[in-house]
UniProtKB/TrEMBL annotation:
This is DinB family protein. It comes from the Bacteria. The lineage of its organism: Bacteria, Bacillati, Actinomycetota, Actinomycetes, Micrococcales. Residues 48-168 form the DinB-like domain. It comes from Brevibacterium aurantiacum. Pfam families: DinB_2.
Length: 172
């Protein structure tokens, strides 16, 4: 059972307007993202040791472990999307329905300690991939299924927003 309302907002609009909830401005330096991803894994490691990490403290919000499992999968997704744009000519980027994946992958019953290890591995892999991006590669483009264009730079800022916002979601 999943009684949480699916999130239908297009969060990519934070790239233009920033996000008042988590403090993302949309002007962040993309070269800072590998370090941020690595550091955020440490914060998640702490979050996932909370005694109530598996509890939904509000019925309409994910538990810490559900948010962490989502972030782990987002990190993999953004690593793959970045790799696609860098290696292919104007690729279409794979879609990701976070709410559907949460149910299919049973985020709710995942083990916090295991998710912490997997999230850290995903964060390090994403950071390593981004560290290889240089010069004109930041301007390469790919397209979401709905036609929205992303450069490697804007995709990376979008990924940074996901990381920042979900830490905010769990008060970390
Ligand atoms: Zn935000």
């Amino acid at each position: 059972m999943n009684e949480i309302e699916p999130d239908t907002r297009d969060w990519a609009d934070v790239l233009e307007g920033g996000c008042s909830e988590c403090g993302f401005t949309g002007h962040e330096d993309v070269t800072s993202v590998p370090d941020f991803a690595t550091t955020s894994a440490e914060a998640w490691n702490e979050v996932l040791t909370r005694p109530n990490a598996r509890e939904r403290t509000q019925p309409d919000r994910w538990s810490d472990v559900e948010y962490a499992a989502h972030v782990r999968d987002i990190l993999d997704l953004f690593r793959e999307r970045t790799h696609l744009i860098v290696t292919q000519e104007s690729p279409t980027l794979p879609n990701f329905d976070g709410d559907a994946v949460a149910v299919e992958s049973d985020y709710r019953n995942q083990d916090p300690a295991e998710v912490a290890v997997e999230l850290r591995a995903a964060a390090l892999a994403y950071a390593a991939g981004l560290s290889q991006v240089s010069g004109d590669q930041w301007d390469r483009v790919g397209y979401r299924a709905d036609g929205r264009e992303f450069t490697v730079a804007s995709l990376t800022r979008y990924g940074l927003h996901e990381l920042k916002h979900h830490l905010h979601d769990v008060n970390a």
